[in-house]
Amino acid sequence: MRKGMAIMVGLVVWLAATLAWAVPTRIVVGVRARDAKFIGTSMGGVLVTIQDTETGEVLARGIARGSTGDTRLLMKTPKGRYTQLLVGNTARFEAVLDLEEPRRVRIVARGPLGQIQAMQEVSVTTWVVPGKDINELVLEMPGLVVRALSPVPHSMIKGPARVEVRASVTPMCGCPVDPRFFWPPKNYEVAVMVRRNGRFLKTVPLTFTGKTSLFATTLDLPEKGAYELIIYAYDKLTGNTGVDRTTVVIR
Prior knowledge:
By secondary structure, the chain is mainly beta. The protein has helices at about 1-20, 70-75, and strands at about 25-35, 45-50, 60-65, 95-100, 105-110, 120-130, 135-140, 145-150, 155, 160-170, 190-195, 200-205, 205-210, 215-220, 225-235, 240-250. A five-stranded mixed sheet has the order 9-16-15-11-12, with no helix packed on it. It has a four-stranded antiparallel sheet with strand order 3-2-5-6, with no helix packed on it. It has a four-stranded antiparallel sheet with strand order 8-10-14-13, with no helix packed on it. The model has no long low-confidence stretch (mean pLDDT about 95).
């Protein structure tokens, strides 16, 4: 009985000593779309995981939420050396780690969570020292969000058929592709690759419809078969690329 009590007392003392040494350390992470703004709540947010690189222990995990950020600051204002980008309610994930010693961590961001077909993953490793906050760590996520709108998957159509192909295209933050904004349609090559019964047939360009972020074309599908439509968007200035797929069956 006394031995058990002694062990319990020892554990309590050890735990108290451990907690006494642990120092709260703040890390703030934002995920910015390449050539655009931050990925936030409007796109479902971004899952951020902070993990010890040596042990694999997950130290923190959560979703970066908030707005896409200050448009003037991000897209117009020349950046100084120490310009802070996570201002106001700009999307971020904040974690407070209780650290007893320096730890090398891997910070992984995966999103946007609201557009599964467009999800990408970026990561960085860094040392974190107890009590030494990292108040702004910005990860850049490349890519474009392409969403096939028409035809709906597995459409059954009597042939021969003319099929309208429509797709929305945006940066990863969901910002508008439109001549009036910072992401003009002319910067994007949008096209559909057509396969019939698994064999490649042709690539047909989609053109901007005049409606924000919307591109379209019409396909002539004269023969029966199962067609796979692979829609892609590509920005040669940044390398940003996105893809989505849909299918149609001509009977």
